[in-house]
Amino acid sequence: MARTPQEIFQSHVTAIGAGDVDAVVADYAEDAVLITPDGVTRGRDGIRQVFTSLLGDLPDAQWTAPTQVYEGDVLFVEWTAVAEKARAEGVDTFVFSGNSIRVQTVRLTLERTP
């Protein structure tokens, strides 16, 4: 049985909070697209590289997503992550298809803290 967008996103948040890149990537379709101001990343291998870098910048961060607006298979999210030596704030849009994330857009600001 296919998961709802809410269930897929909850899995995604849990995996990010645990720093589990394999579980993060498993929530994406094999041909998923991740779009950032730096360009377009295609497929799970590329998405793995993006999250390996992000989680490396924010090890053991506390993640919150206070704004979550669902409309059918689309989700708009505002989030923050606070780690010992860095902080990030971002705005994402997700498009879900079947049992996975098909498209994600990300705009984030990462600040190193002393």
From TrEMBL:
Domain SnoaL-like: start-end pairs: 10-101
UniProt cross-references to SUPFAM superfamilies, sorted A to Z: NTF2-like
Gene3D superfamilies: 3.10.450.50
Domain of life, source organism: Bacteria
Protein name as it appears in the record: SnoaL-like domain-containing protein
